[in-house]
Amino acid sequence: MESNEEHYSHAVIARQDRVIRLGTLLFTMIEARPGYEVAYNRWYERDHFYSGCMIGEYTLSGARYIATRDCKALRYGSSSDLSKGSFLALYWILDEHHADWDEWAVVQVNRLHEQGRMFKERDHILTGFYRYEQEYNAPGSTMPVELALDRQYAGLAAFIVDLVPGKTEQDARAFFDSVDCPGDVSLLSCPVPLDARSPADVPLSAGNHVNFVSFSVENPMDVWAERYVPFGKLIEESGIGTVRFASPFLASVFGTDTYLDQLG
């Protein structure tokens, strides 16, 4: 085995050679009910972000993002309602430890329910676990996806793509392998079933679909028309699937109410 001095002299380290490696992620998109947006934001960042996820063993990192009304105006896709889903949280879970993490998380979230520490005035728009499939970098980028949530990017673009019958995640991977990465680093992932013991208000991330998240150095709204609208067209023209949901999100500013007056 090569020394760390040699190992980390390379900017790019292959996934199989990383000792800290992303295996699965939690993608949770929420809509706070009208009039409760500020309270929800404060509850989530001051309690649930940590008690529901970050204190769990094998959690690598977490981050939060917000879709303002201007972000929502840029959304596209086949979803019946693109106006919902103002708050997005992502959590990275260490490879080969999803079952361990999930066992803790199910017990923990049910405990929080029993303690009255949940938030009733909210709705899950899309909450699910996803398995790492592949990561992609823009030309010149050496960012490993494991560091993406700690990088403090300006924002991200999230795509939920419904695969056409007969297509699989391998087909999706082949397509994304063949096109330029629209952000500094992007992640393709596939759904993992939710534990049957999860709270009843958490919907299943149903259907044959993939999740593609692209992290943007720039404000994603500023490059949406240039990068992310053409990217969605490429997805649909490829024949692998239909874009159910595509949206820019801005990085949340912890400890503040930034953007909360712009959610309408």
Report the radius of gyration as a whole number of Å. Answer: 18 Å
Number of strands: 8
Measured as a percent range, the helix fraction is 25-40%
Q: Largest sheet, if any?
A: 8 strands, antiparallel, barrel
Could you say how many structural domains there are in total? 1
Q: Give the end-to-end Cα distance, rounded to a whole number of Å.
A: 55 Å
The total of helices stands at 6
What's the SSE pattern? HEHEHEHEEHEEHE
Plain-language structure description:
This protein has 264 residues and is of the alpha+beta class. The protein has a single domain, classed as 2-Layer Sandwich (Alpha-Beta Plaits), CATH 3.30.70.100. 26% of the residues lie in helices and 30% in strands. An eight-stranded antiparallel barrel has the order 1-3-2-8-5-7-6-4. The protein is globular and about 50 Å long.
Which helices and strands appear, and what pairs or packs with what?
Elements: H1 4-7, E1 22-32, H2 37-54, E2 59-66, H3 69-73, E3 87-94, H4 98-114, E4 122-137, E5 155-163, H5 169-177, E6 185-192, E7 209-216, H6 224-238, E8 241-251
What are the key terms here?
264 residues, alpha+beta, Alpha-Beta Plaits, eight-stranded antiparallel beta barrel, globular
